[in-house]
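Problem 12. The chain below contains 91 residues. Write out its predicted structure in token notation.
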Amino acid sequence: MSDTASAVNAQITDSVTQVNTKVVGETPAMAMGNLLMSTSHALSNAAHNATSSQQQGQITMQAATVQGVNSLMSVGSAVIGRSSEEVIEKK
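Solution.
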């Protein structure tokens, strides 16, 4: 009775063997696919971060330029005002 209970159909063992072989055969391809996906994701994040950093740098440089021009313009008008005052007072 134990011989008939432990007997497994040959089609079942063949099917299980084929599935195991398929999984083992696909493993390197799946690993490389995951590696390539992870690498491309990391590179796209790096490109996005670089672009964002450049944009923020340009905004900072533009703000510094505006502040510099405002500073030069305010100094210029102060000098002109002082010169005008000296000319008017001398007469």
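Discussion. The mean pLDDT is 86. Students who got a different answer should revisit the alignment rule from Section 12.3.
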